[in-house]
């Protein structure tokens, strides 16, 4: 059996953070739940432990301590919070994988606030130059985690980054949450992935998919 990895989820009480935490709690991981609201964190930890009594889960309200203890950090916060958090964790996240799940959506959800020649993931890489940023989980909706098989097909979850080993590690993490990981390319592919989510959001609103929608690449 592989050694248990410690995963810090910053923004663990949010829609995405809590969905990722709940699904990962079924796997061989130690989870560090991190956010600012302590009460919500303890409620989530309780809920997770009720779902799996053997889960290894801890609550930490300090992003720096959580990131220091972690092997891998998932940044599950709104895009505009990332700069401040990156400044707090820069030293302790050195050489670690930091997962960027963010879609920097505009107010009307029909575009991104980032310039076309960059992405949230690439901006996070600039803020954390000594960490291995990997894009993942951005192309799926929080509601999908309760059932990653949609319409009889397992939803794909695209992964992008520059470090081959980090891509492999994050693909395994994605798989552990129930989705089919597809390594899509280097970190700049995040520009496409973040725009794919804009399209998926537009489609879900237009056709009332009820936020239960995902991408699937059909192939031989
Ligand atoms: N929702 C989706 O379906 C979806 C899908 C794909 C990607 N995403 C991306 O996932 C990210 C999170 O989205 P969400 O919908 O889960 O947001 P959300 O429900 O608003 O949750 C945000 C989380 O971040 C925490 N947080 C905010 N500022 C923080 C700070 N400075 N330090 C520590 N924790 C902080 C919040 O808890 P406290 O306020 O207690 O700190 C909360 O746990 C976004 O970047 C979004 O683009 C979302």
Features:
220 residues, alpha/beta, Rossmann fold, 8-stranded mixed beta sheet, 35% helix, binds NADP nicotinamide-adenine-dinucleotide phosphate
Query: Which stretches are poorly predicted, pLDDT < 50 over at least 5 residues?
Result: none
Share in helix:
25-40%
Kindly report the CATH topology: Rossmann fold
So what's the CATH class?
Alpha Beta
What name goes with the CATH superfamily?
NAD(P)-binding Rossmann-like Domain
Bound molecules: NADP nicotinamide-adenine-dinucleotide phosphate
How much beta, percentage-wise?
A: 15-25%
Q: Between the first and last Cα atoms, what is the distance in angstroms?
A: 32 Å
Largest sheet: 8 strands, mixed
Structural classification: alpha/beta
How many individual helices?
A: 7
SSE pattern = EHEHEHEHEHEEEEHEH
Q: Judging from the principal axes of the Cα atoms, what is the shape?
A: globular
The whole-number mean of residue pLDDT values reads: 97
Give the strand order, joined by hyphens, for the main sheet.
3-2-1-4-5-6-9-10
Radius of gyration (Å): 16 Å
CATH architecture: 3-Layer(aba) Sandwich
Q: Care to count the β-strands? A: 10
Number of domains: 1
Structure write-up:
By secondary structure, this protein is an alpha/beta fold. It has one domain: NAD(P)-binding Rossmann-like Domain (Rossmann fold), CATH 3.40.50.720. The chain is built from seven helices and ten strands. It has helices at 15-24, 38-51, 63-69, 82-89, 120-127, 164-176, 190-207; strands spanning 5-10, 29-34, 56-60, 72-75, 97-100, 132-135, 149-150, 153-154, 156-161, 180-185. The strands form two sheets. Strands 3-2-1-4-5-6-9-10 form an eight-stranded mixed sheet, sandwiched between helices. Strands 7-8 form a two-stranded antiparallel sheet. A hairpin with a 2-residue loop joins strand 7 and strand 8. Bound molecules: NADP nicotinamide-adenine-dinucleotide phosphate (NAP).
